[in-house]
User: What shape does this take?
Amino acid sequence: MELDYEIVRKPKQYIIGLVVRTDNEKAMKDIPTICEKFQDGWQEKIKNCVNDNIVCAYMEYDEDHTKPYTYIIGCVVSSCDYVPAGMACKELAEGIYAKIEVFGSYPESLLAAWEDIWDLDIDRAYTTDFEVYNQYFTEENDYYFSIYLSLPIESVDPDDVFEDEEDGDEDDFDFEDDQE
Assistant: This one.
């Protein structure tokens, strides 16, 4: 299956949420467990969310998706000044991302999308990859959500990069400074 995606720039953001260190062998147990825990009132503990979106991020990769990584489920926040007990604050890296829009029965559509991503012939940076579940993540919208894959800036033509429509005002990302 061929995945359609667009190249977008994302600003640096911070996420507060529940964290687990995992790998693909343990992820099928670890990730549903931490997600279920988060849905049990943890989102309400985050006081400075910038919106109602739930974000699930994969970061701090040991190498790539086949090695251990950190998974966090939480909300994008205005600052890390207040982190509730039992949670952590992590940075969603500024950069260029492949944005993949996903529709379909959940969680089947999520699992199928990641299987397609692993087979995708695309140069990935493995800095921060994340999923955004917003107000459109409903059965009526066929469970629409987005997956963002970090890309090495040198692998992207600046003319192919768009502003992400899911973001508000963003700082410009300077290609020239980062291509040394």
Notes: The first strand starts at residue 6 and ends at 10. The two ends are 35 Å apart (CA to CA).
